[in-house]
Amino acid sequence: MSSVTNNPKLRLLIAVIPFVVILIVACGKSEVPNLIEAPTVTTPTPKVVTVIEELVNEPVQSNSNGQPDNEFDTKEIERNYRGINDETIKIAVVKSGNVFQDVEIGVKARIFRLNENGGINSKKLEIVEVIDDSGSEETLKSAVEEIVDQDIFALILLSTATSPAVTDILAENNLPFFGWGFTEGFCEPNKWGFGFNGCMNLATSAANNENLDTSSLRLLSIFYGRVPQVISITTSDSAGTAVTVQNETLWGDNLIKSVQFDDDISAAAILEEVNSLGADVLLVSMGLETTVDIKRELIDNFSGMVVDDVTYLPGILQDFEMAAKLEGGYVFSQVPPQEEYRGATTEIMTGLSQIDGPQIYSQAISVGYWSTDLLVAILNSIESEINVKSFFEKANIEGYLYNPEFSGGPCPIQTALAHQGSSGGAALLQVRGGVFRPVVNFNCP
Hints:
- This protein is α/β, with parallel strands linked by helices.
- The protein folds into two domains: 3-59 and 210-337 and 425-443, 3-Layer(aba) Sandwich (Rossmann fold); 88-206 and 340-407, Rossmann fold.
- It is built from 15 helices and 14 strands.
- The strands form three sheets. The protein has a seven-stranded mixed sheet, with helices on both faces.
- Helix 12 (320-326) links the parallel strand 9 (305-308) and strand 10 (330-333).
- The radius of gyration is 21 Å and the shape is globular.
């Protein structure tokens, strides 16, 4: 058993969902610039010109005709005022505390700033309940079944146990929920789930080329006009297969090998597969514990860049042993990184200071903050009386362009199309000198 598994403190510190989505890039021995602003897409090698150029120019979200689905019948949606009165709009928070321990702190920081500035049409946003499901689908389902019968308007949902069975309950009861859209409930056909960065479900994006996340193309700016030769390393489960499909589609002939491993995964086995190929980049999507266990050996023995999609966790590098394991490696973040200290960071840190929150904020706090920001933005855009039906009509029929006016913040997303694809924002960071250092700043397609 690994040292990570044996140490409960570290296990809690680095816990994160193994299928946390596709954003993938990290570095081995090759040197890259310390900081690159928004990447410039250069002309790739002839083998992948069509694939790369088409994907880079793809709209952030689209459906079959590029328009919102306005044919949804809203007649059965009651114009009820659940969770809304003259003074407040009530919401709840459900989290998996073993992974997303402090999500409600981000929610509270955003709510405090809203309420200090007059609320929404003079109504204060209020958290009436915070529930920890500890990653149990049964506990989550029971919690959701209780919430839909309470006087609650919306839910901030950040749980590793989220499944279609759970989000279907919310949709059937017309209860909007917000969070990080990596599960099916944030994607079509469910229209009640809103990810702050869209629909991030792996199977959905891999099955529909129009919705492929092009975040890993940020590598093009590092290689200065040359498309790198890459290798994809994933697990053999459904999430790993979805990552493999995306990598093969995105990189075309420049993906020189794809390998999917079963349970017995080791750095030695990976190196045996890849070291004779002379690739520039190793794209690794293996889940957090496995990645931490093998990344040091991969960095030390692979001649190019070693890449992962899960190890950006603010606070993880405070542990010396953990920092040593990740030193020199690179990682993509779908969440605007605190280390950039741009407008989005200032926005969150100001909110946290107002509620005496931490000044080094976690990934969960960031997700909680931006999920609540999306909820607030939609509510503020409703010109008529706020109720469940007017919310749905604004978010899904008329559509609202969510466009935070902060540098380094979430990417623009049209809410009526948000269930069909990701907004595509990402940053690339390197662990250097025991801290995360931005290499490509958080930016949008």
